[in-house]
Amino acid sequence: MKKEKTDILIIGSGASGSASAWNLSKLNLKITCLEQGPLIDKKKYSFNNVKREINKFKDFNIDPNQRRFESDYPINNVNSPISIANYNAVGGSTLIYSGHYPRFHPSDFNTKKIDNIGSNWLFNYNDLEKYYNLNDKMVGVSGLSGDPAYPKINNLLPPLDIGYSGNLLAKAFNKLGWHWWPSYSAVKESKIFKKGIRPTAVEIYLNKAIKNGVVIKPNCRVLKIKMSSKNIATGAIYLDQDKKKIFLEASIILLAANGIGTPRILFNSSNKEFPNGLANTSGQLGKNLMLHPLGYVEGHFKKFLATNEGAEGCALYSHEFYETKKKRGFKRGYTIQLLKSSGPIESFHYLKKFNKINFGKSFFKDLFNYYGCTIPLAIICEDVPDKNNYVELDHKNKDSSGMPGVKINYKLSKNTKKMLSHGINQCKKLFKKAGARDVVAFGPVKNTGWHLVGTAKMGTSKKNSVVNKFGQCHDIKNLFIIDSSIYPSSSGVNIASTVQAVSLMISDHIKKNLTKFLNK
Amino acid sequence: MSLKLNKHLLMRNNLKLILNTMIPGDDYMPCFTKAVKVEKIIKRINNDKFLHDLKMKEINLNEKENWDNCVKILGNDILEPYFTSNSVIKSLNLRKKKYLRNVKKENMIKLLEKVKYKKKIFRK
């Protein structure tokens, strides 16, 4: 087997891998980032409006089981009401994300202490604030200071227009006395990022990291992490783009393959010392999978409101029901997000599913009853950790290189079901106040498992957790997990902002203690 | 005119009729062939038998079986070229302008006045 050498190896080039790649790139070290997916031309993923919905059905389909690209690995969702969404390419799932950049609430880091549910983090909002601020600056996050749902957030770019639908709903929120606020969106003030097109990890971090000397290797799939007899990771075996096996020796390894991909690599790296998966003395690897069960409520209005335009992810949101209130009958809470409605093609397919549109004389009448006059709301529920929700290797379904796929075993908890139902009822109330002629609601929505959290959780000891507060594996001191696998709780907001802030924090810790790790 | 050319013209006219019956246009939106050239669709259709049948005779779209067959074969291929054509994008924009002419938006900051002073809702 051919051998190569690097100082720091980063596995995965998505939201977390890219942030650390950039942060560490300022060191005078050799840094290599292996990415199983290809490098995609920016023109292909910088889409908007009609092109956006066409791409959603084609090359940028969120479901890896439908895409079945060579870079994708099979994910068996049979035992889960929610299927996993991801994207394997340089930039990872940020190529398909919505660019919605809210932070976690301070309480999200202390759910056990505050609400006696889930687990506490080993750091808090204040510890992370500096990295949230840095990340906001790098991303170019737009929004408005003064949101009563958060501690003060400064230096945001001007907020995006909330549109006609946002205006209508804002008034309804006001009538009900509920919290709402214009969303935090990734916009990056630049001519190339036109309205509605959001920057990805490639533009935010990777291009800068490459300039600083980081080597990104696309189409290179890591099969196993190898270790020495002294419980030190020595490097990784990967398949290069010509399908040749290469051993890449590294002093420090950072795993950034998301809440599904990270346990997959660690399980596949089992050895005599760790027969149940690398760094898995605790038995917690793969367990406590948290998704964000999503409820969908759609209000239909008589008038045209151009609801298909506006922020890519979310125009405004409400945290009225984010924190625990005893009388609601469930712990923790959810976000209500005002989304952009679908364009003409997706609208047609949606209506067709319910037999509400046909080609012919009534084509436009049917289409325009829906297109542009339908306001969609998403309810993003906080999930709670449960050891019975777990991922495991699926030896029956293998990827293009013969590596086992992943099987998801996941059920909605009673707490989440109550939360979802509460959210749906509140959104119906909101639409009634806003004057909707009718409302359609359902949940959990199947293809919405894009926030993958908890499968290699942080904790104080190797008895109950996989990593410490800096993502460092308890079992293997030069192996770090920097993605959302390590989160002990899921929050009720999109995770991109926190994923990158945590990654920056961990890589800062590595920078400060570099000699200690390099000498291992 | 050669027989071959005649057949091609018949096929083209038949297809044009079908496409414009499927997407007939309205006050704002153009009918299908005003937005997309028929040739573009002929290239996209991966069904020789269907195209061959169109060369033989006019299709009676009032017959349910014929109509269903056309929708099945063409349904997935015509939406993308239609809605991405320049004339349709322009028409959708004109339509939008007309419908939003009388819809008023309130200033967002004014709307936020009620929320701004709401008691802090986050906990530590």
Helix and strand topology:
The complex is a heterodimer of chains A (520) and B (124).
Chain A: E1 2-11, H1 15-24, E2 31-34, H2 42-45, H3 49-57, H4 64-67, E3 75-79, H5 111-115, H6 125-139, E4 141-142, H7 163-176, E5 181-182, E6 185-186, H8 201-211, E7 215-217, E8 221-227, E9 233-239, E10 245-255, H9 258-268, E11 294-300, E12 316-318, E13 334-338, H10 344-353, H11 363-368, E14 374-381, E15 390-398, E16 404-409, H12 414-434, E17 438-442, E18 479-481, H13 496-512, H14 514-518
Parallel strand pairs in A: 1-2, 1-10, 2-7, 3-16, 10-18
Antiparallel strand pairs in A: 4-6, 5-12, 8-9, 9-10, 11-14, 11-17, 12-13, 13-14, 15-16
Chain B: H1 3-22, H2 32-35, H3 38-44, H4 48-56, H5 64-83, H6 86-100, H7 108-116
Helix pairs in contact in B: 1-4
Labels describing this entry:
heterodimer, A: 520 residues, FAD/NAD(P)-binding domain, seven-stranded mixed β-sheet, 27% helix, globular, B: mainly alpha, 7 helices, elongated
Q: What's the short story on this structure?
A:
The complex is a heterodimer of chains A (520) and B (124). By secondary structure, chain A is an alpha/beta fold. Chain A has helices at residues 15-24, 42-45, 49-57, 64-67, 111-115, 125-139, 163-176, 201-211, 258-268, 344-353, 363-368, 414-434, 496-512, 514-518; strands at 2-11, 31-34, 75-79, 141-142, 181-182, 185-186, 215-217, 221-227, 233-239, 245-255, 294-300, 316-318, 334-338, 374-381, 390-398, 404-409, 438-442, 479-481.
